[in-house]
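pasting for ref. prot 1 ->
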Amino acid sequence: MGSRRRTPYGPGNPGASLTVHPLEGCRGIRAAGEVGLATHTIWEGVLEQAVREGEDVYYLELSEVTFVDVAGAGALAAAAGRLGAGRRLVVRRPPPALRRTLEAFWPGLPAIEVTM
């Protein structure tokens, strides 16, 4: 995977980027950077892959993600809604604002598990 995109605009850092690598030992990805206007294509690709892979649990390690905008949170919730019964996304160590956004707009969404 190893996708990276830099652009001169975005909601956070002017050089916003999102780097994504596969997790070792379990199905999922480790991301670093920001999810915003400049990186939505990468983020949506990650989420589409999670939906397609068909695993019961898909991990999103976000401890190195500093920002996720509302559209990124919405894309996460939409992807969770496309998962089949009994499947879930486990979001590990997300930025605090993402956790709060999910709780505010998509409370109790059973297909997303947030772990700290």
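and prot 2 ->
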Amino acid sequence: MRAISTLVLSAAAIVATALPAAAQVDAAVALAPQGRLEARGAAVTVPVRVMCQKGATGSLWVQVTQNVRGELAIGDKYTPSVPCTGQYQRIDVTVVSRTKAFRQGVAFTSASLNVYLPPDQSNTVEEDREMMLVR
């Protein structure tokens, strides 16, 4: 019985590795090196360039975190739909702080682009970088 179980598991492993993985759809995300403070630091406008394959659907999540005098100013924004044209598109994402006001200076910024092309192609691309916040 043990030999049969081992044989079945081995066969299943071989079949699983032989099956092609779901194809990935073309996608890219790039954060600008500079963001603009809005409303006395209540928010930051983050320029993002996104590219996803024509015919796909994409969504974007951006987060900004900054150390402000020993406390964190944190905000994030989900954009449920981004243009997928096969070319880079600029999107300005306004991130509102959930904690305290952002200030001029360096902040850490993350972006995640999720793309889906029916029937079964998908991809997630991310970028993290330091961003200078200016007025």
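The longest strand covers residues 121-134.
Residues 1-20 have pLDDT under 50 and may be disordered.
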